[in-house]
Design goal:
This protein is mostly helical. It has one domain: Orthogonal Bundle (Transferase(Phosphotransferase), domain 1), CATH 1.10.510. The chain is 45% helix and 6% strand. The strands form two sheets. Strands 1-4 form a two-stranded antiparallel sheet. A two-stranded antiparallel ribbon has the order 2-3. β2 and β3 form a beta hairpin. α1 runs antiparallel to α5. The longest helix is centred in the N-terminal third of the chain and has 18 residues.
């Protein structure tokens, strides 16, 4: 229950950034602070303003124009928490942060990284081609519904992931409130796409 509560708070914080068209691009446990007021996202040093956004401040304007941080093909972030598109140097969007949040939830539930490798190359290969070990095999008390929600976060194809942090939060809330044992609703990606 505590994991679900923290997960909802982190999803709220990610959604707040996304509402301002900010993609964090380095979401990981070290950049999340849990406070009495809720989860806070830290270290927006690699953040990027979505191209379609209009900067509302000088700081946000720098996020949109810093060539070192927005260069096409640049690989930025912490590899263990990167989405496949990020590892390949493709553009990040809110679903990139959803993947990273899935890796954080996986680690919170199991105590292990979702993707690991002895070398950077083997780690990248795991992110691009492998599924992480089943959460229930590492932590048998993990609710199957949570495992399915996290699995959706970790989909290789961004269109198969939750399309917003709000969608993810609602799924976590649904589980916390005793959602159906039959399974988890399909991700909204099947109904709409985010671009």
């Amino acid at each position: 229950d505590q994991l679900l509560g923290y997960g909802m708070q982190i999803a709220d914080a990610v959604e707040a950034a996304h509402r301002h068209s900010i993609i964090h691009r380095d979401l990981k446990p070290g950049n999340i602070m849990l406070t009495k007021q809720g989860a806070k996202l830290l270290d927006f040093g690699l953040a990027r303003l979505e191209p379609k956004a209009t900067p509302v401040s000088e700081t946000l304007s720098r996020l949109a124009t810093d060539d070192k941080l927005t260069e096409k093909g640049a690989i930025l972030g912490t590899f263990q928490y990167m989405a496949p598109e990020q590892v390949e140097g493709r553009d990040a969007d809110p679903r990139t942060d959803i993947f990273a949040l899935g890796t954080v939830l996986y680690e919170m539930a199991t105590g292990r990284l979702a993707f690991a490798g002895k070398t950077r190359a083997s780690l990248i290969a795991a992110i691009l081609t492998s599924e992480p070990p089943a959460m229930t095999s590492l932590q048998p008390l993990t609710p199957p519904m949570l495992e399915q929600v996290v699995k959706t976060c970790l989909a290789k194809d961004p269109d198969a992931r939750w399309q917003s942090a709000q969608d993810l939060k609602l799924q976590l809330q649904w589980i916390r409130e005793g959602g159906s044992q039959a399974g988890v609703p399909a991700p909204l990606a099947k109904r709409r796409r985010v671009r």
